[in-house]
Amino acid sequence: GSTYSSKVFRVTFLTLAVSVAVPLLGVTLLLDCPIDPQPISLKEPPLLTGVLEPNTKLRKAERLWENQLVGPESIVNIGDVLFTGTADGKIIKIEDGEIQTIARIGHGPCGGHEDEPTCGRPLGMRVGPNNTLFVADAYYGLCEVDPDTGETKTLVSTKTLIEGQKLSFVNDLTVTRDGRKIYFTDSSSKWQRQDYLFLVMEGTDDGRQVSPSLLEYDTVTEEVKVLMVQLRFPNGVQLSPAEDFVLVQETTMARIRYYVSGLMKGGADMFVENMPGLPDNIRLSSSGGYWVAMAAVRPNPGFSLLDFLSEKTWIKRMLLKLLSQETVTKFVPKYSLVVELSETGSYKRSFHDPNGVTVAYVSEAHEHNGHLYLGSFRSPYIGRLDLQHV
Length: 390
Hints:
It is a single chain. This protein is of the alpha+beta class. The chain folds into two domains: 1-30; 37-386, TolB, C-terminal domain (Neuraminidase, 6 Propeller). Helices cover 15% and strands 35% of the residues. It is built from six helices and 24 strands. The strands form six sheets. A four-stranded antiparallel β-sheet has the order 1-24-23-22, with no helix packed on it. A four-stranded antiparallel β-sheet has the order 2-3-4-5, with no helix packed on it. A four-stranded antiparallel β-sheet has the order 6-7-8-9, with no helix packed on it. A hairpin with a 5-residue loop joins strand 20 and strand 21 (347-353).
């Protein structure tokens, strides 16, 4: 009897498997894929040893203003007053622990994923020489906000054509000390911020002439210049302390490039290659180097989903035909990592939070007064790490 029942089981199982697989295959072939992925060749991720050795130092961070703000992506300070932009489109001021909304670049309703394009999403933020706030809003463009009155002025609108193309995903900015030049990134000419996962998975440089790119805005002449083109997800930007070059993080390629005006495009523009994660924002550190927050980590030893998928475009197509961006995001391990680079791009130290227990989804590390303020594009708080005690 047992051989008969195992035969029945095998036949039943195979019939079931086929009846599930065939329609699934058919559906998969028929379904549209939202992206046209390109193979990316990444080197094997660096070993997490030496200064990159995993630790739990980020878990020493405290969570500030928990559940009083959502997705504080970028943080700046004027004296001891902090400013940040949140996922519900607000520009927020935090003074003596009190939270106050000072401006909103877009308009309501705000809340869901689908509201982002009208609500606006303030990302990179900087303080100009007259204590004015410069904000990169993903949907509206480059803006200037008066921190006292909240009055907002658009400097470069996403509706403006730049070399025949509109900006689609304004991401981060860095300002010269005299406030004359603003360097900023447009991460894609095809995808908006709400579809950033498509941008990562597609892996292209859009192949268009202008975007995604590093641009320069002159606050005096009000002219916009395109400096670097066809980058793969250009994200955080930072002027060097001497203002003699601009660093731009290329998220999808896990690297940082530098731009020197007049530098011929070529091999000389790589600052750090093959990083242990996908870099988001970059800011100055008090030691003359840079703080880099990683949007995702590339574990080695370990399994890196991003590296595994990098050249397997058919798997990427399948995944995004069948699953939502939100579901795919859940496969990426929640691992928080911030690294400090020296002025020449070598690793000085790293702070980890495996599983993102205390601080999840770190988007920026902003140093102020012996503390590292940790922004996040999703978490409902700002993290603060005391640098004297790590």
